[in-house]
Amino acid sequence: MKNIYPLQFEPILKDRIWGGEKLKTVLSKPIQSSTVGESWELSTVEGDVSVVANGELKGASLMSLIDECPNEILGRAVYERFGKQFPLLFKYLDAREDLSIQVHPNDALAKERHNSFGKTEMWYIMQADEDARIIVGFKEKSNANEYVENLKNKSLLTILDDVKVKSGDVFFLETGTVHAIGAGLVVAEIQQTSDITYRIYDFDRVDAQGNGRELHIDQALDAINYEKVDTYKEYAKEVNQSNSVVDCPYFTTNFIPLDGEVVVSKTGDTFTVYMCVEGSFELECNGVKYNYKKGDTVLLPAVIKTYVLSGKASVLEIYIS
């Protein structure tokens, strides 16, 4: 293995029926279409494995790096727990229109049906148009019968919780939470490595050929959590500090309002990922300086234990506890 350094990856861009152009206009992604909905920043999902975009290792896949140097890339504790699997998936999303209403199965159900992880995730709202909202869970405790009845009657939205959002809001969605990102939002999404989604309702949309997208109504029935859930996360914003936002079994996310300089020391147990959600910053390690701007995502392999962040930016810091 050559010298290991902070790694950026080529964005994997996904056209979506609900996508737009903000990944280009807001986050400077190299999109060629007017309906790009997702930029997968860091992925080992089969068929969508990230490829290094910078430095000596440019062109190497993330999977090949992990395969060659699992401890150095993933970290001792992560490798011990997950083997040579990269356990997280990082995305930016642009919702020009509402996303479908959907739910993700838990680990047990996903393993049984799809030999996959479940899909616990969090959203950080980077940009929100006026009156933009999300759908998260039920307004009140529900059940399968009520859910199916409202689905049949096309009144599902009347029993789901509709929340207005603004830039900087964070929502943590455990598996089983019925949800949808609403129109007019740019979102940073952190989730388990999984592409398993059960689509429940798609607002009766059709594509250019008049075809609706596949629904997974029966599969969703026993994946849904019918309890009322609290998904909104309050968090501190102490400058030049790692402020805890989400700490769950699958990932830890901190918020760093950077205004100056922060010296970081790590143990080597886990990789760390930084997502720049506002402004720009510099990262210095081993005497080399790397620069990042809004919309950039960088993987710090676990072998990089000491470095300095500086600049004026809002940064999400993600690792495995």
Automatic annotation (TrEMBL):
Stretches assigned to the Mannose-6-phosphate isomerase cupin domain: 245-319
Domain Phosphomannose isomerase type I catalytic: start-end pairs: 10-115
Transmembrane domains' residue ranges: none
Entry superkingdom: Bacteria
A GO molecular-function descriptor: isomerase activity
Keyword match Membrane: no
Designated name of the protein: Phosphohexomutase
Native source species: Flavobacterium flavipallidum
